[in-house]
């Protein structure tokens, strides 16, 4: 079987990485979305739910059987160690499911696989699994405003999440290519994505 080119795509919360991923998909890339996989693991009946209930008790599980996300967000806010305990359950499952999706896309003939991974730089093991890393970068204030506009999070909750993520500098240091997604509209962003599509031979 042929091996597709593997691209890691990352960026801080609100940077615009999922928007860039969608634009790469329009050019024919297959997207493996780690956030979507993470969410599927924590829906009712999700693969991570039995372990989460054992680790955090049934307060972590909503009436519908899915992870109670605001309970977990608040717990992590109060007890930073809880984030590590949650990650220890969820991240190994994300690893195996992303690899499974990648192999399926390859079997279907994908030439370029894009791994959309919020924590690519933070969890060091990703770097060896991809051929190149694209970082979507923008000013921190833009990250905050975008995230507040599209979720019900207040500024302190957004800055708290940002503090748990790599810095812009750490992310850029890991990048083969940086897309600076600030002060440009979606049409201009699409032009940027077109220019990296050429670099990627898409
Ligand atoms: C804590 C949880 C329940 C909060 O859920 P919520 O619906 O509020 O946020 P959501 O999942 O949409 O994440 C929003 C953004 O927060 C950031 N984020 C999420 N988890 C983390 C984390 N562990 N560390 C740092 N940033 C994170 C990412 O930028 C992500 O895109 C949820 O984020 C979670 O289950 N996190 C653990 C799994 C994980 O590490 N996911 C991110 C990488 S795939
Ligand atoms: N250049 C832009 N112009 C206008 N809106 C933008 C631009 N880039 C991103 N956005 C908007 O900002 C919001 C955040 O973008 P997106 O969901 O792609 O970010 P993300 O990095 O994937 O975030 P998260 O880590 O939270 O999942 C979305 O509502 C998106 O439409």
TrEMBL record:
Alphabetized SUPFAM superfamilies for the sequence: P-loop containing nucleoside triphosphate hydrolases
InterPro entries recorded: Depp_CoAkinase, P-loop_NTPase
Pfam families: CoaE
Subcellular location: Cytoplasm
Gene Ontology molecular function terms on file: dephospho-CoA kinase activity
Catalytic reaction equation(s): 3'-dephospho-CoA + ATP = ADP + CoA + H(+)
Enzyme class: transferase
Keywords carried by this UniProt record: ATP-binding, Coenzyme A biosynthesis, Cytoplasm, Kinase, Nucleotide-binding, Transferase
Pathway(s): Cofactor biosynthesis; coenzyme A biosynthesis; CoA from (R)-pantothenate: step 5/5
EC number: 2.7.1.24
Domain of life: Bacteria
Positions with a binding annotation for ATP: 14-19
Biological role stated in the UniProt entry: Catalyzes the phosphorylation of the 3'-hydroxyl group of dephosphocoenzyme A to form coenzyme A.
NCBIfam families the UniProt entry points to: dephospho-CoA kinase
Family the entry assigns: Belongs to the CoaE family.
Protein name in UniProt: Dephospho-CoA kinase
